[in-house]
C-alpha cells in the first residue's frame, strides 16, 4: 500500500490534499449554482398520495389529528411532509458525497436537552428518518424550513432571504473550519447552552435574551418529577398515568379487557428486558434499579402522528423516584425509497445508530426493541427518556433577528453532525469560501416554499372535501 504524500491518510486511503481535490473537482460535475434548481417531476406521485400511503401503516383513529395539525399552516404541513420532500429532492443535483443524513432537518427538529454530564446542550433532536445520504438534502430541508417559517411569521422577503443565506453560510463556514480540525476535536465538538449564550447573546435584543433565559429555565424544569406531576394521578395509593384522550390513552381504554391490560403490563416487563440488552452494561445496571409501573399510548409531533408511541412509567426506590421512557415506533426511513434500504434489519436500531452518530451526546437510555403489538403485528421501536431537560424555540413568536441567529446555530449544528460522519475536507472544499452555494440554496428555498404553499392548499381542499 502506498504511503500518504501529504497530511494523514483519510477515507479510502486518500490524503487530506487528495480529499480536498475530490471536493473541488465535484464543482465541475455539479456547479454550486445548480443547487438553486427545483422542478417537481410530473411523473412523481402527488404529495397527498404519498401521505396516504403512510396512513396504511398508522393507527386509523389518530389520522384526523395528523391532518388537523398539518393543515394549521404551510409550516405545519412542511413538518409532516418529509416523505414528499424526499421524493422532490431525489431529482435535484448532488455531489455524491455522503453523510449520515438526518432526513428531516427542519428548524423545529433542533433543540435543547441534557447531556449525561447534566449540561444543557443544543443539537438535532429527531432522527426518525436518518439514513446515510446526500448532505445537500439536509441543508435544503433546513433552508426551506426557514423560508417557510419566515413566511408564516410575516417576515419581508428580503429579510427571509437574509435569514436563509445566513444559515447556509454558517453551515459552509463551519464545514470548512471542521475540515481543518483533528478528527477527535470534531467528534467532541458540541454547543452547550453557556457557549450559545456567550456566542450569540450580543446579537440578541434584551427581550430575546430574557426569552432565551426563560427557555433554558423551562427546559431544566422538564424533568422526570415534573412529568410525574403532569402525567400521573394517584390510584389505589400508587401513581398511574392519567388519560387525556386522544393524546394520552390508557390501554384499558383502547378496547382491551381489564384482565388483558394487566397481562400486558407483565408482558411489557419482557419488552423492557429485550430493550435492556441493547444498552451498555452500565446502563443496564441503572435500568435494573427501576420497576415497571404503568404505560399508555401517547400522540407526539406532527409527522409522527398515527405511528404507535407509548409512554412507560418506571419507579425506583419509591413513588417519588420516577423514570419516564418513550417507546416510539420506527418504520423505514422516508429516504429508503430513494436511496435503498438501511443496513439494519431493525428500524429502531437504524434510528439509534444514526442518532449516536450525529449527536454530540445522546440519551443514556437510548435503545431499541422488536415487539408484538396489541394488534398482533410485529413492530420495531426505539426507546429514550420522555423528558430530560428538553426545550425548544418558540418559532411562531420569533422575531426576524432571533430567527437569523437561530438559523445560524442550526446551520453550525448540522455541519458538525455531517462532519462527524462525512468527509468534511471534501465537502468544505466543494463549498469554498465564496457565497455561490449560499445564494443558490436561498433561491431553492424560495422556490420550494412556493411549492409547499401549493401543497398545503391542496391538503386544505382535501380536508374541506372530506378526504382527510
TrEMBL record:
Give the source's domain of life in one word: Bacteria
Which regions span the lipid bilayer?
none
Which Pfam families does the UniProt entry name for this protein? DUF2252
Q: Where is this region: Disordered?
A: 1-20, 25-50
Instruction: List compositional bias (Basic and acidic residues) regions by residue number.
Output: 34-43
Q: What is the protein named?
A: DUF2252 domain-containing protein
Amino acid at each position: 500500500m502506498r504511503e500518504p504524500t501529504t497530511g494523514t491518510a483519510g477515507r479510502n486511503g486518500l490524503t487530506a490534499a487528495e480529499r480536498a481535490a475530490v471536493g473541488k473537482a465535484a464543482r465541475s460535475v455539479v456547479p454550486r449554482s445548480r443547487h438553486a434548481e427545483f422542478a417537481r417531476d410530473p411523473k412523481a406521485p402527488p404529495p397527498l398520495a404519498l401521505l396516504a400511503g403512510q396512513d396504511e401503516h398508522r393507527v386509523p383513529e389518530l389520522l384526523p389529528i395528523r391532518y388537523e395539525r398539518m393543515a394549521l399552516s404551510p409550516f405545519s404541513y412542511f413538518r409532516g411532509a418529509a416523505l414528499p420532500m424526499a421524493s422532490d429532492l431525489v431529482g435535484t443535483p448532488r455531489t455524491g458525497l455522503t453523510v449520515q443524513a438526518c432526513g428531516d432537518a427542519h428548524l423545529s427538529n433542533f433543540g435543547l436537552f441534557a447531556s449525561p454530564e447534566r449540561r444543557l446542550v443544543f443539537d438535532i433532536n429527531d432522527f426518525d428518518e436518518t439514513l446515510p445520504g446526500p448532505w445537500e438534502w439536509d441543508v435544503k430541508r433546513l433552508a426551506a424550513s426557514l423560508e417557510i417559517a419566515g413566511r408564516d411569521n410575516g417576515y419581508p422577503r428580503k429579510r427571509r432571504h437574509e435569514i436563509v443565506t445566513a444559515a447556509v453560510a454558517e453551515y459552509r463556514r463551519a464545514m470548512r473550519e471542521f475540515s481543518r480540525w483533528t478528527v477527535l476535536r470534531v467528534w467532541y465538538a458540541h454547543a452547550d447552552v453557556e457557549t450559545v449564550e456567550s456566542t450569540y447573546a450580543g446579537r440578541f435584543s434584551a427581550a430575546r435574551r430574557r426569552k432565551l433565559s426563560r427557555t433554558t429555565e423551562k427546559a431544566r424544569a422538564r424533568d422526570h418529577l415534573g412529568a410525574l406531576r403532569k402525567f400521573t394521578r394517584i390510584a389505589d395509593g400508587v401513581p398511574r398515568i392519567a388519560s387525556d384522550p386522544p393524546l394520552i390513552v390508557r390501554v384499558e381504554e383502547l378496547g382491551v379487557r381489564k384482565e388483558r391490560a394487566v397481562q400486558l403490563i407483565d408482558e411489557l416487563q419482557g419488552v423492557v428486558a429485550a430493550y435492556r440488552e441493547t444498552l451498555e452494561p452500565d446502563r443496564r445496571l441503572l435500568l435494573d434499579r427501576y420497576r415497571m409501573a404503568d404505560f399508555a399510548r401517547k400522540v407526539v409531533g406532527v409527522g409522527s402522528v398515527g405511528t404507535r408511541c407509548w409512554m412507560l412509567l418506571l419507579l425506583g426506590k419509591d413513588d417519588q423516584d420516577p423514570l419516564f421512557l418513550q417507546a416510539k415506533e420506527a418504520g423505514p426511513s422516508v429516504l429508503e425509497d430513494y436511496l435503498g434500504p438501511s443496513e439494519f434489519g431493525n428500524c429502531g436500531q437504524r434510528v439509534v445508530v444514526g442518532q449516536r452518530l450525529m449527536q454530540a451526546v445522546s440519551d443514556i437510555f437510548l435503545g431499541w426493541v422488536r415487539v408484538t403489538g396489541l394488534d398482533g403485528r410485529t413492530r420495531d421501536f426505539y426507546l429514550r427518556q420522555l423528558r430530560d431537560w428538553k426545550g425548544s424555540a418558540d418559532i411562531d413568536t420569533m422575531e426576524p433577528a432571533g430567527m437569523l441567529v437561530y438559523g445560524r446555530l442550526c446551520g453550525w449544528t448540522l455541519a458538525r453532525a455531517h462532519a462527524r460522519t462525512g468527509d468534511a475536507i471534501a465537502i468544505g472544499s466543494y463549498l469554498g469560501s465564496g457565497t455561490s452555494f449560499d445564494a443558490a440554496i436561498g433561491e431553492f428555498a424560495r422556490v420550494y416554499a412556493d411549492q409547499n404553499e401549493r401543497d398545503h392548499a391542496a391538503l386544505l381542499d382535501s380536508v374541506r372535501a372530506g378526504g382527510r
